[in-house]
């Protein structure tokens, strides 16, 4: 599932790659929810559990742990965005792309005898690593030549994850 924001120019900015078990729409726990900041889009068949605002509010007031868990999940998202921002100012494009690929391989990759397959385009990988499509393509090509991964249309097969691990 992709979690993205649409710019005023109509461009889609990928913010996060969601996997089964991730939670969206936590703003519904608030009495007066603010407008949504982003949109979730299913990229494959999935099930999505949803509650009406009044129902989730009643549940949260009857079970305070539900609200606390919502806050904990929200803080996890905030932690991810803080780490992403810190990466922008302290890491190279290559390091950010390596972290993105390793994270996706761990969260949504499919393991095969020859490696871990990640179904993502260069544009999606670049957006998640906060680098341009040109830089994404150049770095991935270098890794293909080094045998670290191979590329296919809309997919990456990671052969040597350890080669992308940064101390």
Kindly describe this structure.
The chain is an alpha+beta fold and about 170 residues long. It has two domains: about 1-90, no CATH class; about 90-165, Arc Repressor Mutant, subunit A, CATH 1.10.10. The protein is about 45% helix and about 15% strand. It contains five helices and seven strands. The mean pLDDT is about 95.
Which key phrases capture this entry?
four-stranded antiparallel sheet; 5 helices; alpha+beta; Arc Repressor Mutant, subunit A; elongated; three-stranded antiparallel sheet; 167 residues; 2 domains
Number of strands: 7
Question: What structural class is derived from the secondary structure elements?
Answer: alpha+beta
Total discrete domains: 2
What is the number of helical segments per DSSP (H or I, 4+ residues)? 5
- Radius of gyration in whole Å, from Cα? 18 Å
Strand order, sheet with most strands: 4-5-7-6
- Average pLDDT across residues? 93
- Low-pLDDT stretches are none
Q: Summarize the helix and strand pattern as letters.
A: EEEHHHEEHHEE
- Which percent band covers the strand fraction? 15-25%
Characterize the overall form. elongated
Question: What share of the residues lie within helices?
Answer: 40-55%
Q: In this structure, how is the largest beta sheet organized?
A: 4 strands, antiparallel
First CA to last CA: what distance? 30 Å
